[in-house]
């Protein structure tokens, strides 16, 4: 019996759709329902319909503030480091060295993020970089358990996720466009701004969104390098669900975080459309 195109589409999308509904839509719906409830007498969840949990979000404003400041800052810092590195490897390094250098970028992923965070605890602790700076007469510095330590940790941990989308965009760049720009008298900086950068923006956007979305829910790095003094929404959620057992308030915070992410994704989609228009303009030059 022949299968129509529509039936074939449903057969292909059905398993993935069921998986998506079971592991994403239903848990989010459950969290949304919990967010309108109340904390039980011994913790957990008590059915109700109230907006009190959302009205109480201000009590955890510090967690939102740290997340909304350090997540974009970490994304921008990773971008500023990853883009020159990707540009150099994609357009300036010969093929015989490129593979080796890319492997060196991947090497940190071969080690657990937990071990890497412990390494940064030592480097930023009293016997690490601060002691070295003090021995050089540069004064006493406290680096561990500060926003700077958390920023260093998230940039180090998420740099490869920013690097590879940008590298792929630059590696696929048609070198003839750069040659044409040079033949038309454009200096290198102008060729970069008008040709290389616009054509690599999809990779920049992809890497930035990957890093930013993951940082919004980050828990381990702030917990270890922040020492309980610099905590994200993820740390607050762990406290509310596992320690305070205030599932209703924790659900309200989670729903708010998801709403922020939906807003970011919406802006991201608009940004992609502008990128497409910019690429078309470059193609018409």
Automatic annotation (TrEMBL):
Record-annotated ABC transmembrane type-1 domain positions: 64-268
UniProt keyword Secreted, yes or no: no
Signal peptide: none
Membrane topology, as annotated: Multi-pass membrane protein
Entry superkingdom: Bacteria
Gene3D superfamilies: MetI-like
Listed transmembrane segments: 12-36, 69-89, 101-123, 143-168, 199-221, 247-269
Keyword Iron-sulfur: no
Subcellular location: Cell membrane
InterPro entries referenced in this protein's UniProt entry, alphabetically: MetI-like, MetI-like_sf
CDD domains per the UniProt record, alphabetical: TM_PBP2
Keywords from the UniProt entry: Cell membrane, Membrane, Transmembrane, Transmembrane helix, Transport
PANTHER family assigned: INNER MEMBRANE ABC TRANSPORTER PERMEASE PROTEIN YDCU-RELATED, INNER MEMBRANE ABC TRANSPORTER PERMEASE PROTEIN YDCU-RELATED-RELATED
Family: Belongs to the binding-protein-dependent transport system permease family. CysTW subfamily.
Name under which the protein is recorded: ABC transporter permease
Species this protein is from: Paracoccus broussonetiae
């Amino acid at each position: 019996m022949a299968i129509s195109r529509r039936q074939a589409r449903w057969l292909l999308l059905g398993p993935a759709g069921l998986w998506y509904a079971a592991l994403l839509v239903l848990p989010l719906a459950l969290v949304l329902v919990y967010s309108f409830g109340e904390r039980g007498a011994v913790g957990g969840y008590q059915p109700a319909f109230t907006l009190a949990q959302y009205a109480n979000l201000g009590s955890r404003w510090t967690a939102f503030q740290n997340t909304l400041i350090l997540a974009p800052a970490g994304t921008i810092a990773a971008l500023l480091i990853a883009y020159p590195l990707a540009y150099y490897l994609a357009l300036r390094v010969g093929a015989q060295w490129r593979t080796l250098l890319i492997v060196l970028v991947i090497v940190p992923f071969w080690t657990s993020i937990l071990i890497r965070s412990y390494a940064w605890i030592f480097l930023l602790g009293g016997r690490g970089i601060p002691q070295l700076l003090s021995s050089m007469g540069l004064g006493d510095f406290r680096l561990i358990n500060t926003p700077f330590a958390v920023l260093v940790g998230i940039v180090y941990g998420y740099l490869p996720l920013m690097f590879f989308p940008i590298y792929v965009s630059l590696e696929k760049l048609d070198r003839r466009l750069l040659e044409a720009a040079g033949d038309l008298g454009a200096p290198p900086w102008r060729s970069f701004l008008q040709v290389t950068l616009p054509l690599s923006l999809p990779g920049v956007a992809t890497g930035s969104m990957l890093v930013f979305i993951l940082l919004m829910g980050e828990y381990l790095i702030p917990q270890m390098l922040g020492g309980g003094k610099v905590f994200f929404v993820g740390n607050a959620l762990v406290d509310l669900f596992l320690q305070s057992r205030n599932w209703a308030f924790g659900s309200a915070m989670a729903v708010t975080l998801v709403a922020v992410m939906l807003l970011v994704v919406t802006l991201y989609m608009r940004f992609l459309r502008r990128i497409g228009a910019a690429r078309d303009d470059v193609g018409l030059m």
